[in-house]
Design a protein that fits this description.
This protein has about 525 residues and is an alpha+beta fold. The strands form 6 sheets. A 7-stranded mixed beta sheet has the order 8-9-10-1-11-19-12, sandwiched between helices. The protein has a 4-stranded antiparallel beta sheet with strand order 4-5-7-6, covered by helices on one side. It has a 4-stranded antiparallel beta sheet with strand order 14-18-13-17. The longest helix is centred in the last third of the chain and has 17 residues.
């Protein structure tokens, strides 16, 4: 396949997925100005401000401000583009050469050179506390081949790696700060090379960052700083924007759209994303160690009804971890689990499951999460399942399921998407991946198919491999996908330059404030 054809395919994907701002052309802006503090209502306290050790997808909204990545992603297509690595090249299928941008320093003055990049990549792959080892599974070694050049030797061909380096694995942390930090302190005192430098973190209340005056991107960032107010109750967060206490709120629940549309001082941005609500299943732990129980759960949910009741119709029913318009979506896999509570009951009986047995699933304690839980509880009840949600704040609930405790057999949460789909599947469905809640084995053919999905740059070859990956994941019912939520961001009218993106994780690269 030619490069032009690949671009055309990505353009088709973009046309199908790209969102627009409600109420007009969002991108016709006046001349940007410097100054002011951007005040943001954030829905969750971070699990960590160290990109290697964090465990929540909601962390990215903070991390992207303080850490630059080796590559970046295009807002509309997620195609990788230059970042801290100004260029890269596969010199052969098992060798990736990264040319590092000159003149960049970390917030503490440490040079961001080839040695710093090598240090970070090796830490992300090998540190005992790293949660992103799977991201760099294909990297056999990182070698300094010039003052500003790093050569990655791969154990297997990995065409997804440039995209992967636009996420946590490519976030560069100051080696000086890492070496100086005592156990567990780096997650509270981040030192990156991003547009903003860390100032303070009042746990569960506020995170303050300031402009990096030596940032390498010309005239960026525009605001003097950002203040994130941690407001888990999204209705309260929305009110803080309409009242002028904050300037912007992201991850706004769909039920708030009609309310915010009626506020003259507020504008709302809307667009499709890869953000999927789902129930993560620990298939190493009863009852989900039985494939028939996992399949029964998938048959028990009416996804169309869930979208209407829980998300005001501003979502797409999810039957796998990719939406319809994605180039790797497979229509046949989407047909595996039509709503069928009778079949769910039959599978449960075949599994020897005793009707009425309580199944505890972890969840979050905010209003919208509880509403989603109530809708699901009723659907499960109709299929003979007695599901109980055990709720706690996002960081705590995530740690309880993915961390050492393994407290619950499931977790109702969201997968926030990744720039390359192979990363989504490797992070959830390989044996020792962090988001494999039980670190349980998966079929060898699944791991082989995930590996195959990264072996070629040809998009048709990759799509064929992903069809196998998705079928194996869903036939084994390793997850219960529910719905892809649309991005919904509301802000007052002095906020300019905001652009939605396909990941649905806000970036503020071009945001500025009218005085």
């Amino acid at each position: 396949m030619t490069h032009t054809t690949r671009r055309e395919l990505m353009a088709l994907m973009t046309g199908a997925l790209a969102g627009t701002a409600l109420g007009g052309n969002a991108f016709a802006q006046a001349t940007p100005k410097r100054g002011g503090i951007l005040r943001i209502s954030a829905p969750a306290n971070p699990s960590s401000l160290d990109p290697a050790t964090g465990g929540a997808g909601s962390d990215h909204a903070f991390l992207f401000t303080m850490y630059d990545t080796l590559t970046e992603w295009d807002f509309e297509t997620l195609k990788p583009k230059p970042g801290l690595a100004e260029s890269w090249k596969f010199t052969d299928p098992n060798t990736l050469v990264l040319n590092i941008r000159a003149g960049v320093t970390f917030h503490d003055g440490t040079p961001l050179d080839a040695e710093a990049v090598k240090f970070n990549l090796e830490r992300n792959k090998s540190d005992a506390k790293s949660n992103i080892k799977a991201d760099l599974a294909s990297m056999a070694s990182a070698e300094v081949t010039g003052p500003m050049q790093v050569t990655l030797k791969l154990s297997t061909p990995d065409a997804a790696l440039p995209g992967i380096l636009s996420d946590r694995a490519g976030m560069m942390v100051s080696p000086t700060a890492v070496k100086a930090a005592s156990a567990g302190t780096l997650n509270r005192t981040p030192v990156g090379a991003g547009a903003y430098a860390f100032v303070s973190w009042a746990d569960g209340e506020k995170i303050v960052i300031k402009r990096n005056e030596k940032y390498w991107k010309s005239n960026r960032p525009y605001p003097d700083g950002i203040e994130f107010s941690i407001i888990p109750e999204l209705t309260t967060g929305a009110r803080s924007v309409t009242a002028g206490q904050n300037d912007l709120i992201y991850q706004l629940p769909p039920r708030q759209k009609a309310i915010m549309d009626r506020v003259p001082s507020v504008k709302v941005f809307n667009g499709p994303t890869l953000y999927v609500f789902q129930i993560f299943l620990n298939w190493a732990k009863p009852p989900f160690d039985n494939i028939k129980v996992r399949q029964a759960f998938n048959f028990a949910v009416d996804r169309e009804a869930f979208v209407k009741a829980a998300l005001a119709g501003l979502a797409e029913p999810a039957y796998m971890n990719l939406p319809k318009a994605h180039w790797a979506y497979d229509k046949s896999v989407a047909a595996l689990y039509p709503y069928d509570p009778d079949r769910a009951r039959k599978l449960l009986a075949e599994a020897g499951f005793k009707e009425g047995t309580v199944i505890e699933i972890g969840g979050y304690n905010d209003q919208d999460s509880v509403q989603r839980q109530e809708i699901l509880i009723e659907m499960f009840r109709k299929a003979g399942m007695n599901v109980k949600f055990v709720n706690s704040p996002i960081a705590e609930a995530s740690a309880a399921f993915f961390g050492p405790e393994k407290r619950n057999s499931g977790l109702l949460a969201a997968w926030t998407g990744r720039p390359d789909p192979s990363l989504t599947y490797s992070l959830m469905f390989t044996k020792d991946a962090y988001y494999n809640g039980g670190r349980a084995p998966v079929p060898r053919e699944l791991e082989a198919a995930i590996k195959e999905s990264r072996a070629s740059e040809d998009i048709e070859t990759r799509a064929k491999a992903f069809a196998t990956v998705q079928r194996l994941v869903m036939e084994n019912a390793f997850v219960l996908p529910l719905a892809f939520q649309f991005e919904l961001v509301a802000m007052n009218k002095k906020v300019q330059g905001y652009r939605p993106n396909l990941l649905g994780k806000p970036k503020y690269d071009d945001v500025w404030l009218e005085s």
